[in-house]
Design goal:
Blueprint (H helix, E strand, L loop, with lengths): L6 E3 L2 E3 L6 E2 L2 E2 L4 E2 L4 E2 L3 H21 L1 H17 L1 H12 L3 H26 L6 E3 L4 E6 L5 E4 L14 H8 L4 E4 L5 H18 L6 E4 L4 H8 L6 E5 L2 H14 L3 E4 L6 E3 L1 H20 L11 E5 L2 H15 L4 E2 L3 H16 L3 E4 L10 E2 L2 E6 H6 L12 E7 L2 H9 L4 E7 L7 H12 L2 E6 L40 E6 L21 E3 L2 E3 L4
Parallel strand pairs: 7-24, 9-10, 9-12, 10-11, 12-13, 14-15, 14-21, 15-20, 19-20, 21-22
Antiparallel strand pairs: 1-2, 3-6, 4-5, 7-8, 8-23, 16-18, 17-19, 24-25
């Protein structure tokens, strides 16, 4: 008898088609947690694809109001199980129940669902465009197939494949979802799927609008993202896995949106050090160790001017790192990555100033670790020092002068974020103007005098960036309505009769408030 939790496929909970299972870990103790979760064979995946493909047409016929109502109903149901959700994610990830999970991340998840519902109902995200003279009209709409979502381990709510930002964005665009749970937090994902399924039944969405598979073989993942029935894929995780999925999807001509890795460089200019070195050091330490450094926007590469002020700054940061306690990591793969990074950086000539220790006893832990190296050493092999070290590890590069700082900036890869700290009175303006134009092309989000770890769910936010931080620099994974466009197709109607047009493109504004471009003017008026 199969004792594993059932999968959600084709609108019903049923046992997986194979005997293989896994269990989640408790990173605080290193032990396994109760409950077995299935590793689905390909027939399970194929069934989900077939059901999702059928649901795509049914969902498109319903229109945006039903999807908006589902997203809102789902958010309400999640709130009712908040305590259970927080307890599950705390056990599975080791992240603090409060404030991180209960008061920060879960409310962010609910906010994303509700903002996606508002954008779905408003419809302006579709960018309806009407050329009356040529009688050509266009708008963004669903892809015509299910969107596969593979979430990461470090955000069990905000990026969860079952309810996170990608989920909300893809549904708002009118696409059904095939969610692949992360094996690091299957219980939290299962609870979300239960509530999503009940909300679907209540709102009367097509039953296969949301499906859940807990795990499958890597080769089946490659087969899935390249399948003809898939609309698109969203993946957040490691660079090796992301690149393998991208190769498979690209070969089949299937869209895939990736968030893979980022070192998030921070440049600290001389005037800033002279003005507030101690304060910046404290901000850096807090940012590097937030959530045990397991944030995609952690500053993993810091560039400071060499000299007495720069060396004093490094010493302040070193003391903070050295005086901190080992932190619980999400799982053994994170620990393995930190071990590899420590060995690799030392082999490349970086000097370990603090940390690098694994405490004895139970649990998956690592001491906050700080490396220092010369700017000349960085320039010899810049790629080696920009590999993301996921966890509590950062590298400070000592630049001999501003010319070297500029050269370092020039040799940066693509990153999610980049920050510049400068003197509040403007004494660094010349230096800033020398660095900013270079850094601007290397990052998706540029910050001034602020560490990059906070990501606000704002319409103006860009949580994306140049390759290899992501697979495409033109899209964001955070912020509505922009995040929705990843999962939409541009549809053009040329001399199509009025009664056959979608409501968004007919002469009458379908909501009275939707923004449309009519003959070059963005307006809410009807024709």
């Amino acid at each position: 008898m199969n004792k594993a939790f059932p999968i959600l496929v084709g609108g019903r909970w049923r046992p997986a088609g194979g005997p293989a299972t896994f269990q989640a870990l408790d990173p605080a103790t290193g032990g396994t947690l109760p409950g077995e979760y299935p590793i689905s064979p390909w027939p399970d995946v194929a069934e989900a694809l077939e059901a999702g493909n059928k649901a795509a047409g049914e969902l498109a016929a319903l229109g945006p109001e039903s999807i908006a109502r589902f997203l809102e109903a789902f958010a309400i149901r999640i709130e009712r199980r908040k305590e259970e959700l927080v307890a599950a994610a705390h056990l599975e990830t080791g992240l603090p129940a409060e404030p991180r999970l209960g008061s920060v991340e879960l409310p962010r998840m609910l906010d994303q669902l509700r903002k996606a519902a508002a954008a779905c109902r408003d419809r302006s995200w579709s960018r309806a465009t009407i050329d009356t003279k040529a009688d050509i009209r266009s708008m963004y709409g669903p892809l015509g197939g299910p969107v596969v979502i593979m979430g990461p381990n470090n955000f069990p709510y905000a990026y969860n494949a079952m309810g996170g930002g990608d989920f909300a964005s893809a549904l708002a665009a009118g696409n059904p979802i095939i969610a692949k749970a992360h094996p690091g937090h299957p219980a939290a994902t299962r609870i979300l799927a239960e509530e999503a399924h009940e909300a679907i039944l209540k709102i009367a969405l097509p039953r296969a609008s949301v499906q859940l598979l807990y795990h499958f073989a890597p080769e089946d993942g490659l087969r899935l993202v390249s399948h003809p029935d898939v609309g698109a894929t969203a993946f957040t995780g490691s660079r090796p896995s992301g690149l393998a999925l991208k190769e498979a999807a690209d070969r089949a001509g299937k869209p895939i949106y990736l968030e893979m890795s980022s070192a998030n460089p921070v440049f600290i200019l001389p005037g800033a050090l002279d003005e507030r070195s101690t304060e910046i050091a404290a901000e850096l330490f807090q940012s590097c160790t937030l959530a045990a450094g397991q944030m995609c926007t952690k500053p993993g590469l810091v560039v400071v001017p060499d000299g007495p002020a720069g060396r004093g700054f490094v010493e302040t940061v070193r003391k903070a790192f050295e005086g901190s306690e080992p932190m619980v990591l999400l799982g053994p793969k994170v620990l393995d990555g930190l071990r590899e990074a420590t060995t690799r950086l030392a082999a490349k000539g970086a000097e370990r100033l603090a940390g690098g220790r694994e405490p004895s006893g139970h649990g998956i832990r690592f001491s906050p670790t700080l490396f220092r190296m010369s700017g000349a050493g960085f320039l010899e092999d810049p790629s080696s020092f920009q590999v993301e070290s996921f966890g509590t590890l950062s590298v400070i590069v000592m630049a001999g002068d501003m010319a070297m700082m500029r050269e370092i900036a020039t040799l940066l890869d693509g990153h999610l974020t980049g920050a510049i700290y400068s003197h509040s009175g403007g004494s660094d303006n010349g230096e800033y103007d020398a660095i900013e134009p270079i850094l601007r092309t290397k990052v998706g989000r540029l910050l001034n005098d602020k560490m990059p770890t906070g990501v606000a769910v704002s319409p103006a936010m860009n949580h994306g960036g140049p390759y290899p931080a992501t697979g495409h620099p033109g899209f964001t994974a955070v912020g509505f309505p922009a995040a929705i466009l990843r999962f939409a197709a541009l549809r053009c109607y040329d001399h199509v009769r009025a009664g056959r047009l979608p409501p968004e493109l007919r002469d009458a504004n379908p909501t009275g408030a939707m923004w449309r471009s009519i003959d070059g003017e963005w307006t809410q008026r009807s024709l």
